[in-house]
Structures are given as C-alpha cells and as structure tokens.
Amino acid sequence: MGRLFVIAGPSGAGKGSIVQALAEEDPRLWVATSVTTRPPRPGDADGVTYFFVDDATFDAMAQKGALLEWATVYGYKYGTPREKVEAKLAESRDVILEIDVQGAMQVKKRMPQAVTIFIEPPSIDELRRRLGRRGTDDDVTIEKRLGIAKEEISKKDRFDFVVMNDNLEAAIAEVRAIIDQARRNQSV
Ligand code: 5GP
Fold first, then answer.
1. Is the CB of 79 inside a 6 Å radius of any atom of ligand 1?
2. Angle 182-94-113 from CA coordinates, rounded to 5°
3. Ligand 1 atom 10, closest CA
4. Over the stretch 93-126, which tens digit does the pLDDT of each residue have?
5. Is 65 helix (H, G, I), strand (E, B) or coil?
6. Ligand 1 close to Cβ of residue 78 (< 6 A)
7. Euclidean distance between CA atoms 174 and 33, whole angstroms
8. Residue 71 CA, closest ligand 1 atom number
9. DSSP assignment string, 130-171
10. Which residues contact 126 (CB under 8 A, 6 or more apart)?
C-alpha cells in the first residue's frame, strides 16, 4: 500500500507551490484531482486543475459515496474522488491530497494512517500581501479569505505536522522530509 498525505492550509499559504514542486521531483507521488462546482478561472483546465461539475452531479457523487471527503469552501463544493485514490494506494503509489482543513479532518477520521500536514503562512499580513499579489481576488474576497484563514490556523494543532512557509524552498524541504520519514517508518 502507498501512503496518503493530506496537505491543507489557508489559501495563499503556498500549498499549491509546495505540492507542485514535490510532485515534479518525485515520480512515486501522485496528486489527486478534485471535483468542484466552482466555475473555471482563467488558467484552469478541466480534468487537470479540477474536474468541473454542476451541483447535481456533485451531489450525486457525494450521495453514492464516490467522494472520500468533501466540503463547501468559499460557497462552492469541493471533493476528492475516492476510487482513483484507493487504486493508486493499492498500486503502492503515494498519494497527495491538497484540500481544505474540513476535508483534511474527514480524511484523517476515515483513514487514520493518513499523514496530515498543515501549511502555515508566516502571518496574516504576509498572507494579505500574497493574496493581493496573486491578483485573482478583489479586496472584499481577500478579507473574506483572511477571515477563513484565521479560523483554519486556529485548528492547526489537529494536524500531524505544521510547516511554516516563510521560505518556499525550506518549506518544500520540510514536507519532503516528512514524506521520507513516513516512507521509512512504513518499511520497518
Ligand atoms: P481554489 O478554488 O482556489 O482552487 O481552492 C479553494 C480551496 O478549496 C483551497 O483551500 C483548496 O485546498 C480547497 N480544495 C480543493 N480541492 C478540494 C477537495 O477536493 N476537498 C476539499 N475539502 N477542499 C478542496
């Protein structure tokens, strides 16, 4: 069996950059693609960044147990398709989920052997700067995201590991070390 790693943390904390870097350098890692009811943004590609579905399709998937976890984030539903994740784990691939805190807690409850990692931004001010620089959100949306970020940060102690991302390269190295350690433990 492969190992399941769950990476969560506020939007703008750098989860995406960390996961991308790890996946590029490590062919044993497989990053799950989520389904969402959020409309695609410029740069999104269906089946690559997400599978974009309507509400009815999402609800049907949730109802028939096709989602390992799901949550409503910023007004849209996001979920992890279960089957592919289980298939990859069975093929001994290590799987990464990049999801929100609610979803991470659901996965941990269902699969206690999952390794959960919270990516923490250095400060709310720095997060505000990063979200502003990203340019995808207006000021109202940024403030809303910061409110949710504060709430997510208050739950970081529920995670197996907390990685502070004040330096991207260092944060990537830290997550890589967590993954390496989990692999070593498994082979004992
Ligand atoms: P965005 O729409 O900006 O790509 O993502 C918004 C938030 O939804 C991010 O915090 C992201 O981690 C979270 N998210 C993405 N996919 C999933 C998923 O499958 N399940 C859950 N619970 N959250 C997800």
1. yes
2. 50
3. 100
4. 999 999 999 999 999 999 999 999 999 999 999 9
5. coil
6. yes
7. 23
8. 22
9. HHHHH-SS-HHHHHHHHHHHHHHHTTGGGSSEEEE-SSHHHH
10. 166
